[in-house]
Design goal:
Layout (H helix, E strand, L loop, with lengths): L3 H18 L4 H8 L3 H9 L7 H10 L4 H13 L32 H13 L7 E7 L6 H12 L7 E5 L11 H11 L11 H12 L5 E7 L2 H4 L10 E6 L4 H7 L2 E4 L5 H12 L1 H5 L1 H10 L4 H13 L5 H14 L9 H14 L3 H10 L7 E2 H8 L3 H13 L4 E4 L2 E3 L2 H11 L4 H16 L3 H16 L1
Parallel strand pairs: 1-4, 1-5, 2-3, 3-4
Antiparallel strand pairs: 6-8, 7-8
Helix pairs in contact: 1-3, 1-5, 2-3, 2-4, 4-5, 6-7, 8-9, 12-14, 12-15, 14-16, 15-17, 16-17, 18-20, 19-20, 19-22, 22-23
Length: 469
């Protein structure tokens, strides 16, 4: 049988062999498996002697192991000392704490340098005084700030065994930004505080929040922040915690006063843009590399625009990539743009207009209506109320919009429209009679009336804005 170390090194050697056979670097395997690069490295070296069951399962999925190969992989992990008998951070025997991270994008592609840079920022400050604050995503709308941050947070979640908190601060959404006091109330509720026990004032809530996090190793993800003032009350006081922030704002005050470190995201490199299209489109992209490069360039390599263009390809499975690239170039010319390149917002508008033209009128109507409510997204019952249709009748058009890359499904039955796309869709919705929009929003308000006064108040504000317009 050999020693424990020998048995574990057998698993490390098997992992490395399977990774090399798959043609993956450690970074690429880490991204696919939603684990940290350090986890992969330590397993292959034999430094980690107690692999979690969920880590082994993720690795097997990422390596696309099946049948005998997967059984061999799992057996080798079980033979390691302590093996997969130890539950992962989400296992029933794991430490208590909220696990609020959104699901990571299954088709996340590229950004290896940025993922490494984020990890280095965290490690650079590890153990030092104060709170680690990582402004994980400076950059323009649609550049992939949230996608990168969520992917990275999942990879590093194991370093924060006491839990992960998440809040969309809606700093650039259609409605007002979320107030820190409301976020603090939600975080305190996540720790098990009953509503009557939550302090009424923002300062008291912040103090209770910091007390709860003291001594805990937790990750706090503050997404889509509008300003440093919105973030500052949400910072823990414990050096064992890390804070990830995404924002379009430079957050100069957070950098200067609170020690935040910025990582500015740029557009995709040509290789990453082509890789994402190949991931989303498949053989059509890999069979026509020049046309794929033209399509990516027509999107100005803005990740959100690339995803919407891939959605057009999904709606038209028989269309060659060269045909799609030519159509996008023609749309850009209609809008007074060069065939490729140019400002990213203009490119997104051109890609969206082209995509919208592919939709059936009834599906386009659904898209326009779901752009009206404030907030990060809609669940299926709320969408059904907004559209005045049974939930079963709403699933099909919402699924089609998700397939087209215009909506994201972040959890079963939960649909999210990107802020940048919402602004473009609302321009179209503004052409519909205000009375129709009022009727739809009123139905949604009535639906929410029994679910929470805050949601009803936000929709009332949107109705008032329509009256003012």
């Amino acid at each position: 049988m050999g020693t424990d170390e020998e048995r574990h090194s057998d698993f490390g050697r098997l992992l490395r062999r399977r990774r090399v056979e798959a043609g993956l670097t450690q970074e690429e395997l880490a991204t696919r498996a939603e684990l940290s690069v350090r986890t992969i490295r330590d397993l292959e070296r034999g430094t980690t002697t107690r692999p979690y069951r969920h880590s082994v399962d993720r690795l097997a999925d990422a390596l696309r192991l099946a049948g005998d190969g997967r059984q061999e992989f799992s057996r080798a992990a079980r033979r390691s000392p302590g093996g997969t008998g130890i539950p992962g951070p989400s296992g029933p025997a794991g430490p208590p704490g909220p696990r609020q991270l959104p699901a990571a994008a299954p088709d996340f592609t590229g950004r290896f340098a940025e993922l490494t840079a984020l990890t280095e920022l965290l490690e650079w400050d590890s153990g030092g005084p104060g709170t680690v604050v990582v402004a994980a995503a400076g950059g323009i709308a649609g550049v992939g700030k949230t996608t990168l941050g969520v992917t990275w947070a999942h990879q590093l979640a194991g370093r924060f065994p006491d839990g992960q908190l998440y809040a969309d601060l809606r700093g650039y959404g259609a409605g007002p930004p979320v107030r820190p006091a409301a976020v603090l109330a939600a975080f305190l509720t996540a720790f098990g505080l009953a509503r009557p026990d939550i302090p009424p004032g923002a300062e008291e809530r912040a103090a209770r929040y910091r007390s709860l996090l003291a001594g805990r190793r937790m990750l706090v993800f503050l997404d889509n922040a509008g300003s440093a003032e919105q973030i500052r009350p949400l910072l823990p006081g414990s050096a064992a915690c890390a804070v990830v922030v995404t924002s379009r704002d430079a957050l100069a005050g957070l950098v200067a006063r609170d020690g935040a470190r910025r990582l500015d995201l740029d557009l995709f490199s040509p290789a990453d843009a082509d890789m994402l299209l190949a991931t989303l489109i498949g053989d059509r992209a890999t069979a026509s590399p020049d046309a794929t490069a033209d399509l990516a360039a027509g999107c100005t390599r803005l990740p959100l625009a690339v995803r919407v263009a891939a959605g057009v390809a999904a709606l038209r499975p028989g269309a060659p990539v060269a045909e799609l690239a030519a159509e996008l170039a023609a749309e850009r010319q209609r809008q007074g743009l060069a065939a490729t390149g140019g400002p990213a917002p203009a490119a997104l508008r051109a890609v969206f207009t082209w995509s919208h033209r592919q939709l059936d009128p009834a599906v386009a109507h659904v898209l326009r209506l779901v752009s009206l409510p404030p907030g990060p997204g809609l669940d299926l019952p709320a969408a059904a109320a907004l559209l005045d249709l049974p939930p079963a009748a709403v699933e099909q058009p919402l699924g089609l919009l998700a397939r087209a890359g215009l909506l994201r499904v972040t959890a079963p039955g939960w649909y999210v429209l990107h802020d940048a796309l919402r602004a473009l869709v609302r321009e179209l919705a503004a052409g519909a009679p205000a009375a129709d929009r009022r009727v739809a929003l009123t139905r949604l308000r009535d639906h929410h009336a029994g679910l929470g006064a805050a949601a009803a108040d936000e929709i009332t504000a949107e109705l008032d804005a329509l009256d003012d317009g």
